[in-house]
Amino acid sequence: MSSLPFSLINILLGAPDVKKLSLYSTALAFLLLLAQIGHAARIKDLTNVKGERDNQLHGIGLVVGLAGTGDGQIEQTERSVINFLKKEFDLEIIRSNRSRNVAAVFVTADIGPYAKEGSRIDVMVSSAGDAASLQGGTLLQTRLFGADKQMYAVAQGPIAVGGFLGGNVDQGAALQINHPSNGVITNGAIVEREIPMDIMNRDGSVDLLINNPDATTAARIADAINQFYPASSLAMDLGTVNIRVPAIFQQQVTNFLASIGGLDVTPDVPARIVINERTGTIVATQNVRISKVAVSHGSITVAIEREQAVIQPGPLAPEGAQTAVLDGQNVTVREKVGNFQIIDEDLSNIPQDLKPQYENLPTLDRLTTALNAMGVTTREMTAILQAMKKAGALHAELILN
Q1: Shared-domain flag, residues 75 and 45
Q2: Are residues 385 and 282 in the same domain?
C-alpha cells in the first residue's frame, strides 16, 4: 500500500475535533477500498469480542391441546397441572383419570448479548415425559431462568414440530418421521430483564477472541489493526488480541469495532485432515504436506456362497429311494493386484508432457490425485492416510471421528 493513505491519516489526525471522527471514518473506508488482499476474511468473521456472549435459559412448562399424544399417567405431570390451576385460577382439582392431551416439557433458550427488555427470542420445547408427539400443542406461560436463578424471559405460544407421528400409538401401528417430541416456538419468549454486558477492560482496551486460535492468525490481526491505529494492538496469546481503544473512539467503542471489523486478514489454517469413518467423509486443508513415500494398495475378498446339490436315485436303486438335497458351501478368494506407486512432492517421476500442468497442483491435490488413480475407496483411503501418518510421511494432524 502506498504512503499516500497514511499521509492522509496524519492530516486527519490534526483536523478540528468536531469533524475528526467523521473524517477519520471516511479515510478508513477509503483505505479499505484500496486494500487488495486475496483469500482473506474480515476480522469480524474471525473473532468475537470478549464480554459479548450468549446466556442459556431454561424452564419447565406444560403443553396443552395435544390430540391424545401427551403424557400418560405420570404423577409429575398431573401434579404440575393441578398446581398450575390452583396458583393461576384458584381452582381445586381432584386427581382422576385424564386424557393424554397435556405434556410436561423442558423449555430452553439462548439470550443474546444485546437482547433488550421487550425483545423476543426463540425457544426450544422438549418432552419431559412419555408424550408421543407435541404436534398441535400450545405452551402455557413459562418462566425462563438463568444460571443465577433469576428470571430473564417468559415463553408462551403454539409449537412448530419438525416431525410427524401418525396412526394409532397405543396399538403400536404408527408412522413416525424425525422427532415429533421436540418443537420450536419462533419469537416465543419475551425478554423481561436485560443481561448487562461490559466489553471494556479497566485500562480502556478491548479483547478480541479468535474463533480458531492460532499464533500466526493472532499476529496478522494485530498487524492489520496497527496499520490503521499504530501501536494499539498486541497478540497476547494464540487466541487473544488486545486493542487499546484510541482516544478519539473512547466514547464510540461501537464505531471503533465497526471500523476494524471490516479489515481483511488472511488466517493461517493448520495442516489437518478430518476423517469421519461412519459417513466416509474426508476433509483436508490446503496446507497438508507429504514426504516422498511409496504406497502399495491391494485387497483380498473372501466370498462364501451357499450351494445345493441334488442327488437323484439311480435306475437300480432300492425301492423307496427318494431325491435328496444336500447343502454345501463354496469359498472363493479374490485378490486385487497391488499398485505400488510413489507419491512425491518433486516432479522427477512425472512424464515431461504432463509436468507443466502438474506443477500447478499443490501437495494435497497431488496426494488425492495419486490415491484416486490407484482406484481406492474412501474407506481404503482412510487406511492409507493412517499408514502414511504412522510412517512419518504425512505432515498433518489426523483427526478421526
Answers
A1: no
A2: yes
Kindly report the CATH number assigned to the domain that includes residue 211: 3.90.1150
At residue 70, the pLDDT reads 75
The residue out of 174, 191, 208 marking a domain boundary is 191
Give the number of other Cβ atoms within 10 Å of residue 87's Cβ: 9
**DSSP three-state, residue 48:** strand
Q: What is the pTM of this model?
A: 0.62
Whether residue 129 is found in the same domain as residue 25: no
Say yes or no: 364 and 326 in one domain: no
SS3 216: helix
User: Which residue among 128, 158, 191 closes a domain?
Assistant: 191
Number of domains forming the structure of the chain: 5
Which run of H or of E encompasses 10?
helix 4-13
Same domain, 75 and 109: yes
Q: What is the C-alpha to C-alpha distance for residues 382 and 11, in angstroms, rounded to an integer?
A: 59
- The HSE-up count of residue 296 (CA atoms within 13 Å, CB side) is 5
State whether 59 and 43 are in the same domain.
no
Q: Convert the pLDDT of each residue in 317-366 to its tens digit.
A: 677 667 776 665 555 545 555 454 555 555 555 556 655 555 555 566 66
DSSP string computed for 278-337:
TTTEEEE-TT-EE-SEEEEE--EEEEEEEEEEEEPPPTTPPTT---EEEEEEEEEEEEPP
- What residues make up the domain containing 9? 1-36
> How, if at all, do strands 397-400 and 272-276 pair?
parallel
Rounded to whole angstroms, the Cα distance separating 324 from 314 reads: 12
Give the helix/strand (H/E) hosting 84.
helix 75-89
Task: Please state which of the ranges 122-136, 256-270, 292-306 shows the lowest mean pLDDT.
Answer: 292-306
257 part of a folded domain: yes
pLDDT in tens, 8-46: 334 334 444 444 444 444 444 444 444 444 468 899 999
CA-CA-CA-CA dihedral for 99, 100, 101, 104, to nearest 10? 130
Distance CA 129, CA 107 (A): 13
Exposed e or buried b per residue across 228-244, where buried means at least 16 C-beta atoms within 10 angstroms of its C-beta: bbeebbbbeeebbbbbe
